[in-house]
Structure formats: C-alpha cells, structure tokens
Design brief:
743 residues; alpha+beta; seven-stranded mixed sheet; six-stranded mixed sheet; 20 helices; 31 strands; 27% helix; elongated
Length: 743
C-alpha cells in the first residue's frame, strides 16, 4: 500500500516535482534572501550586532561666477564601527563621470534617426570642449602629510598608513576643484542654468565634493563605478560647510544657516523670524521685486554662508542672485520644520502659489506613514528640466510660459515633482537604501508614498503612478523589453516603469487589496522606524512587512519583484446548478430544476453565457453516501434533512478561473443578481496554492445571478479585462456588461 501511494504521488500531474511545476509560485523565498544573522535578523530588523560606519565633514568651498568653477577643501573624520580592520578607504569622485576618460559615453548605446535634434547629434559626436571631472590637488593626513592614493575613474582608494581597527577613527584632507557644467547642454543631476536675457546663472550644486563610499555587512565596500544612472550609497555624518559666493547671491542649502547676521539684511531676518511662527501660508523673505533688482546688477565682492547639518548622508546647495525666497512653518506631531522655496522670477506665479504649499503637504503625509520629519527645514528650488533630491533640499522643474500663463498639465507636473523630490528626504535620505544597487528601494517606495500624498491633498490631480491600473500597459508589453524589479540600476531597460511605476503599483495592490490599509500601514511604518538613519536591504523590507503583519507575502515578492509575469485571471467557465428534488417533495416551494441533455455545441456556448435552465445535482442522504462504516459514522453527526431543506432553493455556481498571466493574485468577484443587487467576494491569493494554473470553486447563492465581473475596480493590474466578465460580450468591454447587469 505504501509503495502504491508513493507511486501515485510521483506520477500525478499535481505533484510533478521533476518538472518544477508544483507550487513554485508559493515556495518560500528561503535561500533567495540572504541568511539572517546577528547584524540583520530574520524579522527584518537590525540585529543585536548591527553596525554602520560614519563620516563627518568640515568643508570650505568657493563658487566662481566668472568662470563657473568650484574650488574646495575638506577634512573628513572617518569612524570604523565595523568588526573589521581596514587597510584602505574608498572615496567617491562622482564628477569624474564627466572627465574625458569617463566610461559613461562608452557604455551608452546610440542610434541614428530620420530626424535628429542638435542635442542628439551632440550626444553622439561628443563635439564639445568641456574639461570635466575633479582636479585633486591634495590628499593628506591630519598633519598634512601626503597619503598614498589611487584614482580609478569615479572611485579613489586611500591607502592607510596602518590598519584602522574597530572603534578607531582616521582624519584626512582632500583639496579639489572642478568646472561646473552647463546642465541645459550636457545634462546631469547638478550644474548651472544660464539666463541669456539678464546674463545671470542659477547654480544647483551636488556631487560636488569627494564623499565616502559605504562599507557595510552586505556588500563590504560599495564601490561600483558611477556611470550616471545608478545613484548613491552614502554614510551618515555631521557637516560644517562654509560656502563663498558673490555677495549678491542667495544660497539655499542642506542644514541650518549659522551666520544670518552676516549674510541676511535686517529685513530678511525679521521676515524669516515671522515665517517660523506662520503656519497657514508662506512669508516672503526675498520678494520678486527685490530679486529683479538684484539680478539687474552684479556685485564685485563675495560673501560666505555657513551651514551646519547633523545626521545627513549628503550635502547640496543652490545659489543665484535671481532667487525669490519664501518660507512657512509646518506643524507635525511634535516638530515644526520650515518649508521653503527658492525660485527665479521665471517660475512665477506658479511657484509662489504652489511650491511651499506642496513641500508642507509632503512633510505631513510622509511623517504620518513613515517617521516624523526629523530635520529643521525642507527646501524646493526651481530650475528648468530637472527633478533631483538631496537631504533637506531638492531641485525641481515646472516653468510657466514667459507671460506667466501655464496649463493644468504644467501645474500638476510641477506639484508632482516637488512632492516626489521632497519625499526623497524619507527614501533614501533617512531610510538610507543603496541606490547604486536597488533603485526601486528609494524610487518605488517614494513614488508609492507620493501617490498617498496626492490622494490626500490633490484629489483633482491626475494620478500618474501608484495604482494598479496605471501599470497595466507596461505589464502587458513585450517581455523582451522588461527586467524584474530586482535588477541592478544600470541594467534596467524601462527605467520609469520598472523602478518607479511597477513597485509603486505593487505596493498599492499590497495595501488596498492583499493586506488592507490597517495591516499595511502598520508594517510600512515599522519598516521606516526600524531603518531610519540605517542601511536597509531588500530582504529587510520584505521580512519586516511580513513580520509586522502576520501575512505570508513570499508569493507576492516572488511574483511582483523577481519575475516579469503579469496578471491575467480569466473567468473561463461558469456552470449553474440546482438540487434535483423529486415531484412529491416540491410542495409549491420552488419550481423543480430539470435534467436535460444538451449537445456539445450547447455545452460550449454555456461556458460563455448563462444557460436557460440550471443543471441539476442529486442530493444523497446518509445511507446513499456512506461507503464505509467510518463515513456513515461521520455523516450521522449532521442533520441531513435540514441540510437538504436549506439548500433546496439555492443556486450553485461553479466558477473556473485560469491564471493566464503567471502572476498569482487574489480573486475579486462581483456578482449581479436578478433583482439588480450587487455583492463582492474576495478570495485570497492562496486559492492558487494547490494548482497555480486553474482553480474551480463553487458558490451557493440565494438569488439567481445574471452577471459576474472579476476585479471590477481594477485593483490587481489585470491586463486582459475581456475575459473577466460573464456572460462574455462582443465589444470586450466589461464596463458595458456591468452596466447591463446593473440595469
């Protein structure tokens, strides 16, 4: 008997282990994720031995407006909190992606088109003379003694005089300079925009100083080269920065201004003090009239602005004599950070009306869903054709026409990018993931939380990403043009869809359909609280979401994040049954269902439409059904007559679902009854556990069903809605069918 049973299990298609088909979508991630340890435990939290490095910076730099260059010197204090002895340090030189020896143009594909813009031709010919990249003039220890170092493109290795042990720190100096590029011509995350009508420059400066690479328990040194797309992995630290600029410039920066008495007028200081007490609308620190006056003449001298920032992973600033500046306070649960905007007159009236308001709304929503915003300020800076984020400051597009008019699309685009870039303060500036490796961990999580902000404060704004239905076109596309979400930044094919849209849609499905808002929000906030000011990995996110909710989500991560499968659940068959009741038992309670013989052609038609009459099934009593003493003993425990009576008038609908897309999802069924009422049922994704391809389930209904729709509210990103309705309709529109049923 045992041998026979084993043979049946092996040969049965349901248990086809040899082909790897059984339950593969519900296998636990197991060895796919890194093994939990004392640094990162199995719950997804930092372990008892979790550690991370730290780097503090003291920087002095000067921005030259005559030749668009920057010169700087920094002292870095590096703390080794790891259990390892380090013999060298890696420093990031991101400006070197613009050097003449950069790999970036060599690894970018290009192709000819029938019509080419000047910028497209320039990108191919590289026919411009720009001397980019860092010019390193000094690398020395705390005493000024030169340190041996080696530059490998965008990375510099500093060889230590002796190994750096756990608990020790090393102080070194770097002096450098570089030419700031014309961002409008050469592109980039930072640079300058030139305004030919008034002859002024607006600088948005980032990746401007040599920065420590991350050394952690996951990657060791994260020293992957910067090619331009994969962003940054950075250590937290304290910054003391002195920025020397033309004396008529206004500087917006990461951190808090330390020398307002030296750089602000008495009027500006008074306005700033007023803004710190104003919560309902922005206060103008520098008005448009004042900015217009400043840009009309150019001062000869310089002024030094000093900013300090604690516990930040990076530092950026913007500077121009063109800046209008407004600010207001934002009341959070326990903190009152400042929301600020800096923008040239070319941004008005749109920026004065909307920017700081959007900053404030973002801080409120993100603080609710993650952690309370911990920094003293959040800044939005306007310049053309950009959306880029840094701690406490971001650079954003959204420029009206020259006459000040703008379309709704321009307004919503500008508000959307401000929410998104300010939101990056949380992902990854605070919840500090490795952007060079996993773009989705900051872009995807941020895009999802952006959608929550827009739905809370901007209901009239068209949502671009963050709902299931918004990713359908991508997911039903050619798989050759896709990569799984779990793909390195430089290898992603459709960057916006893969790193922003799909993970945001996945989290929306997870919140609204799979887990429900209450469970999801608690788990998501737990992840943020656990990993604030730390370095989370994908496994930490996946494990925390399960740990804090008691929901097994391995199937979800596996399908949405590790494959390019899509959702296509087809309602392929519907059969209607009623109980066969003998004539002498009818007693005017109901019309007896009829047994009828139908042809194969009629049977096939009935799979796509409701039959005129229900098929019948015969109810077996205890004596008829019992095939063994054990079965009889069990069945005698139920009230057979009561069961038969209760179900005599019920309609039984046998539904067959096919998983055509490969991505398993919950099944949401909307029933429309003969009397016009509607009911929705939810089947968890685990319905597919025993057969991932086809599932059949019977539903008992008191009323006759006239219409069935699967996923009626487009919650699951199903790419083929025509097979979601029953009866089928020729125009393939389930909404028309839904309306017909409702009538």
């Amino acid at each position: 008997m045992k041998r026979n049973l084993i043979w049946v299990l092996i040969m049965s298609p349901m248990f086809a282990f040899a082909q790897g088909e059984w339950n593969q979508k519900f296998e636990q991630l197991g060895t796919t994720l890194p093994t939990a340890n004392s640094y990162r435990n199995a719950s997804g939290a930092p372990g008892v031995d979790y550690w991370q490095q730290r780097a503090d910076y003291t920087i002095a730099a000067e921005l030259n407006d005559d030749n668009q260059s920057l010169t700087g010197r920094e002292t870095v204090t590096y703390y080794n909190n790891s259990p390892d002895n380090l013999t060298y340090l890696w420093v990031q030189l991101d400006q070197n992606m613009r050097s003449k020896t950069s790999d970036t143009p060599l690894v970018e594909g290009s192709e000819m088109k029938e019509a080419m813009t000047g910028k497209q031709v320039l990108n191919i010919s590289r026919d411009y003379d720009f001397d980019g990249g860092f010019k390193i003039s000094e690398v020395s220890d705390a005493a000024g003694k030169p340190l041996k170092h080696m530059i490998n493109k965008t990375m510099m290795r500093i060889d230590l005089p002796k190994s750096l042990a756990n608990g020790e720190q090393f102080v070194f100096n770097i002096a450098w300079s570089y030419n700031v590029q014309d961002r409008m011509e050469l592109g980039g995350r930072s640079g300058y925009e030139f305004f030919p009508k008034d002859g002024n420059y607006l600088y948005t400066i980032a990746q401007w100083f040599p920065r420590m690479a991350v050394y952690d328990d996951v990657e060791g040194w994260q020293n992957k080269q910067f090619l331009g797309r994969g962003e940054f992995a950075l250590e937290f630290g304290d910054y003391k920065v002195r920025l020397t600029v033309p004396s008529d410039f206004v500087v917006a920066s990461t951190g808090e201004l330390q020398n307002a008495d030296q750089v602000l007028t008495k009027t500006q200081k008074a306005r700033l003090a007023e803004a710190k007490k104003t919560f309902d609308k922005p206060v103008m620190i520098v008005t448009e009239a004042e900015a217009r006056k400043a840009e009309a003449t150019k001062a000869k001298g310089t002024k030094t602005w000093e900013y300090h920032a604690d516990d930040v992973r990076d530092f950026a600033f913007a500077a121009s004599r063109k800046f209008i500046w407004d600010a207001q306070a934002v009341q959070l649960e326990t903190k009152t950070p400042m929301a600020m905007s800096y923008y040239p007159k070319e941004g008005n009236p749109l920026w004065e009306d909307e920017s700081t308001k959007a900053v404030a709304n973002t801080l409120r929503t993100y603080s609710k869903h993650t952690i309370e915003y911990p920094y003293p300020v959040a800044i939005s800076v306007h310049t053309a054709s950009i959306g880029m984020e840094y701690p406490m400051i971001c650079f954003n597009y959204g420029r009206p026409n020259e006459d000040g008019t703008f379309t709704d699309a321009k307004k919503w685009g500008m508000i959307g990018v401000i929410i998104h870039e300010v939101g990056h303060n949380f992902f990854p500036m605070i919840i500090n993931s490795d952007e060079r490796q996993w773009t989705w961990m900051d872009e995807g999580l941020n895009t999802f939380t952006q959608s929550l902000t827009e739905k809370e404060y901007y209901l009239e704004k068209p949502l671009k990403r963050g709902e299931a239905k918004l990713i359908v076109d991508y997911m039903k596309g050619d798989k050759e043009g896709m990569r799984p979400i779990m793909t390195n930044s430089e290898q992603i094919l459709q960057f916006g869809n893969n790193a922003y849209g799909k993970p945001a849609a996945a989290l929306s499905v997870l919140r609204e359909t799979v887990m429900g808002p209450e469970l999801f929000d608690y788990a998501f906030k737990t992840y943020a609280e656990r990993w604030a000011f730390k370095h989370p990995s994908p496994a930490d996110f996946f494990r925390t979401m399960e740990d804090a909710s008691a929901v097994d989500l391995d199937w979800f991560w596996k399908g949405w994040f590790y494959t390019t499968d899509h959702v296509d659940i087809s309602l392929s068959k519907v059969k209607w049954y009623r109980m066969d009741i003998p004539e002498n038992e009818v007693e005017n309670k109901s019309k007896k269902a009829k047994k009828s013989k139908i042809s194969a052609e009629e049977e096939n038609k009935n799979l796509m439409d409701f039959a005129d009459e229900a098929e019948v099934f015969t109810y077996k009593g205890v004596n008829e059904a019992a095939e063994s003493a054990r079965a009889s003993e069990f069945l005698n425990q139920v009230d057979d007559a009561a069961i038969k009576s209760a179900n005599a008038n019920r309609n039984f609908y046998e539904l067959t679902f096919e998983n055509k897309g490969g991505l398993v999802m919950p099944i949401i069924i909307e029933w429309t009854y003969e009397d016009g009422t509607v009911e929705t049922e939810f089947l968890p994704a685990e319905i597919w556990k025993k057969n991932e391809n086809v599932v059949t389930k019977v539903f008992a209904k008191e009323k006759k069903v006239t219409n069935i729709v699967i996923d009626p509210n487009e919650e699951t990103a199903d790419v083929a809605t025509a097979n979601n309705v029953f009866p089928r309709v020729e125009d393939n529109s389930r909404f028309d069918q839904f309306q017909k049923g409702a009538e």
